[in-house]
Write a structure and sequence with these properties.
single chain, 101 residues, alpha+beta, two-stranded antiparallel ribbon, 50% helix, 14% strand, elongated, lipid metabolism, lipid degradation, hydrolase, hydrolase activity
Amino acid sequence: MAAASAAEEEANGSSMEQCGADADCNPSPGNVKVLLGAADEMLKQKNVESVMFGGKRIGEQTNMEKLDWFAGELVLEHQRRSCRIAPTVAFKQPTPKATDT
């Protein structure tokens, strides 16, 4: 089965190449299948991070693992914020303006 999909990609180009500028606007079942395939490929790839003044670094985690970790962090932060008595955002008090007299 893997050989068939590899031959299909070879004949049609990779699924990433099939995604044009308007690929996300085409709701046809074939296009949805291509986009899901492209998304699966991207999620299986190793995570690439930008390093300030150092280019890029390939991480140990896949993009899927990184997204799972980030989603967990968002849930924890939401739980922390929902339990607080004081608001998360503090407003800066306006300073009185000096008048020229």
